[in-house]
Design brief:
The protein is 62% helix and 9% strand. The protein contains six helices and three strands; from the N terminus they run H-H-E-H-H-E-E-H-H. It is globular and about 55 Å long. It has a single domain, classed as Winged helix-like DNA-binding domain superfamily/Winged helix DNA-binding domain (Arc Repressor Mutant, subunit A). Strands 1-3-2 form a three-stranded antiparallel sheet. A hairpin with a 7-residue loop joins strand 2 and strand 3.
Length: 137
């Protein structure tokens, strides 16, 4: 059985959400570049920094970033070459490589996250407005 077509309200809310996301992404791109990070490196460093203990693995990042393993591996390699992160072999399992931010990577990320605070707050307010959101499906 087909779902009923979305209401004008549903369409307006979907458009508002997409607009807010695009605005945030555009602002984030400018801010991250200003602090010497590509948007992808910003996401990579953010996910590593926000992980438990401030470290992550390529496998964990594949899931969090929703990218392929080869793409994440390439991002990690470029970030390491740029001095933004370091690799360290796990003392418990030699097959596991932990990734963590260097002081330079942490400093650039902190500056970008701080500058994006007001725009992030606007997006979060929009997302959390009228909570809880009822599901149509």
């Amino acid at each position: 059985m087909a779902s009923p077509p979305p209401s004008r309200h549903d369409l307006a809310e979907a458009a508002r959400l997409r607009e807010a996301l695009r605005r945030f992404l555009r602002e984030a791109e400018g801010v991250t570049r200003k602090h010497g990070l590509s948007p992808r490196h910003h996401e990579l460093l953010l996910m590593i920094s926000a992980s438990e203990g401030g470290r992550s693995t390529v496998s964990e990042l594949v899931e969090r970033l929703q990218l392929t393993q080869s793409t994440v591996t390439e991002l990690v390699q470029r970030a390491e070459e740029s001095g933004l992160l370091r690799r360290q072999q796990s003392p418990a399992d030699g097959r596991v490589i932990h990734l963590s931010l260097t002081d330079e990577g942490a400093s650039r990320l902190a500056a970008a996250v701080a500058e994006l605070g007001p725009e992030r707050d606007r997006l979060l307010q929009m997302l959390h407005r009228d909570e809880p959101v009822a599901s149509n499906g």
